[in-house]
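SEQUENCE AND FOLD
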Amino acid sequence: MNCYRIPEMAKKYIEYDMIQKHTELPLFPEFRTRLLYAFLSKHSTLSGHSELFGLVTSLVQIGLDTHDMVSVTNQAKEMRAARSRQLKVLAGDYFSSRFYFLLAHAGQIELIGVISRAICDVNRLKINLYQLMKQLKLSAEDYIKQSVEVKTQLYLAFSKLMEGTVRRKWSEILQLFTCCEVLLLEISKSEKVQQHRESWGFWHVFQQATKEERRHLQLDDPDPSKIRAMWLKYKVTTQLYQMLDAAVKQLQEYLQSLEPKELGKELLLVGEPFKLYLSRPKASEEI
C-alpha cells in the first residue's frame, strides 16, 4: 500500500495564520479523498497522478464547503464577525483556484474541464436543495439522500476515468462511505442546538411535530431549551446513531465481498473510524 499523505500536502494551501486566527474552516474531506486515492492508485495509467488528483479535488471540496459556511445575510456589525465572513469568501475562492494552477502546471488540462463541470453540478444540486428547504418541501429521508448527492458529486466526476467494472464499484462505494460521513456530521449537529435549521433533526422533528412545535422550529431566534426538548422528545440523536450503525454494517458487508480482495481490505481500514465512533461512550440523551 502506498503512503497516503494528501492531508499533509494540503496543509501548505490551507494553514494560513490570518485564516486560522480570524475564521473557522470546514473539516478535510478525509474519507472521500482516501477513497479517490485508493482507486486511482490501482489505475493502470493514472496511478502516478493519484496524489495530485486527490489533492486538487480535496482543495476544491474545501473551497466549496468554506463558501457554505458563509452566512446567508450580511448583518454582522461586529468587526470580528464581519472579518470572519469576508475571509470565508476569500478563502473559499483561493482553495478552489489552486486546482487550476496545480493541474495546469502538471499539464492536466482535460481534468480542469472535468472538475469545473463538476463544480457547476454541485452548485446546481445545492440550489435545488436550498429551494426545497426554503419551501419546507423536504422529508428527513430526502435530506440525507440529497446531502449525500451534494457531497459525492465532485468525486463522481472521476467515474468516467475509472476502468472496467471498477467504475460502478467506485460510485457505489463512494455513496456508502459518504452516507456514513453525513450521518456522522448529523450526530454532531444534533448536539449543537444553534445548527438545528441545517440538520436532519429539523426535518425529522418537523414531520412529526405539533402545530405549536412547528411554529417554534421556524422562528429566527428560537428558545434553545425548547429545541433541545423537542430533540429529546423525538429521539433525534438516538435515531441517527441507529441509522449510522445500519449504514456502517451495509458498508462492511459490501467491502467484505469486494473484488479484488486487496482493495476491499484497504477500504475496510479506511472505514474503521466509523466503527470506532459507534463503540465510544454516547452522550446521555434518552438512551
